[in-house]
Amino acid sequence: MISNHLNTYLILAVFLLIAGIYGLIQHRSFIGMLVSTELILNGAGVNFMAFNRFLAPDPAVGQIITLFIMGIAAAEAAIIVSFILAVFRKYQSIDPDEVKELHG
Amino acid sequence: MTFYQSIAEGVFFAFIILVILGSLITIRAKMLMQTVLGLAVALLGVAGIYFYLGSMFLTLMQILIYVGAICIVLVFGIMVGYTPTEVAEKTIKDWRNKFLAVSSAVTAFFLVLACIFKTDWIPAVAEDRNFSAAHLGKEFLYTYCLAFELISVILLIAIIGAIILARGGTGKTAFDHSVNTGVTAVQDEKGEASI
């Protein structure tokens, strides 16, 4: 019964985390970076749910934290998409390499 | 293991494969649209994982919020900003970037894996724990009321901020933009479009 072990879920969460980190560095567009961030946040959510199922005395806590993560992710996606809109108006392109006014 | 248990295990494996496949598509796809679709597949898999972790409510929320809302917002972002010729990313030629990505991902993988296997997890004592949505709702409104209110306030602030950012991106502050009369605002919009 592999679905009844904590380590299964933790390793899955690690996979989501490293996929997110890899994508965050490797993607060359704002949308790609945002998508990778969503993967990382989902890894955190899986972790919290796994601890909630196997270790926590009160199973409501982990679910509440995971819902909180979902709320944060939704807010973050909305904010970043509006950033992309603002950047597109100012620079007429959405290439992260061109947005470098603060570059040293 | 009974017949039904093996079916359940098979479905669990299917969800894990969905998650892995989706995240691989997400990080390897050349087109941005494929990236978002891969994210949707991975998030559906995570929803199934939540189901196996005992929470029907979070499964529904995952599908509703992530697959239903966030992916749509991402597709909207692609639609607004990227012309079809640009949608194919100009990635992957950059070897230094790729080396950085691989090395940091592998380092993180082994560090977290070492933590997982070195820690002595102590299982929960009580076995008959209440996973129902009714219990969750009660906890949300009594014990964890602050978290509940915080989510609402954060979402409200994010929505207002998103609207202000999306409207006032012409170099003026948002305040200037709102002071403008309707006529000049229309002219601004036209001037923007002609650039």
How would you characterize this protein structure?
The complex is a heterodimer of chains A (104) and B (195). Chain A is elongated and about 55 Å long. The longest helix of chain A is centred in the last third of the chain and has 32 residues, at 60-91. Chain A is mainly α. Chain A has one domain: Helix Hairpins (Orthogonal Bundle), CATH 1.10.287.3510. The model of chain A has no long low-confidence stretch (mean pLDDT 88). Chain A is built from 3 helices and no strands. Chain A has helices at 6-26, 30-54, 60-91. By secondary structure, chain B is mainly α. Chain B folds into 2 domains: 1-97, NADH-ubiquinone/plastoquinone oxidoreductase chain 6, subunit NuoJ (Four Helix Bundle (Hemerythrin (Met), subunit A)); 130-195, no CATH class. Chain B has 9 helices and no strands. Chain B has helices spanning 3-28, 32-52, 56-81, 84-87, 95-118, 133-141, 145-167, 174-179, 182-194. The longest helix of chain B has 26 residues, at 3-28. Chain B is globular, with a radius of gyration of 23 Å. The N and C termini of chain B lie far apart (68 Å). Mean pLDDT of chain B is 82; it is low at 179-187. At the A-B interface, α1, α2 and α3 of A face α1, α2, α3, α5 and α6 of B.
CATH fold label of the largest domain in chain B? Four Helix Bundle (Hemerythrin (Met), subunit A)
Oligomer: heterodimer
Run of helices and strands of chain A: HHH
Largest sheet of chain A: none
Integer-rounded radius of gyration of chain B:
23 Å
Share of residues in helices of chain A: over 70%
| Element string of chain B (H = helix, E = strand) | HHHHHHHHH
Instruction: Detail the poorly predicted runs of chain A.
Output: none
Number of distinct helices of chain A? 3
Give me the CATH superfamily of the largest domain in chain B: NADH-ubiquinone/plastoquinone oxidoreductase chain 6, subunit NuoJ
CATH architecture of chain A: Orthogonal Bundle
Task: State the gist of this model.
The complex is a heterodimer of chains A (104) and B (195). Chain A is mainly alpha-helical.
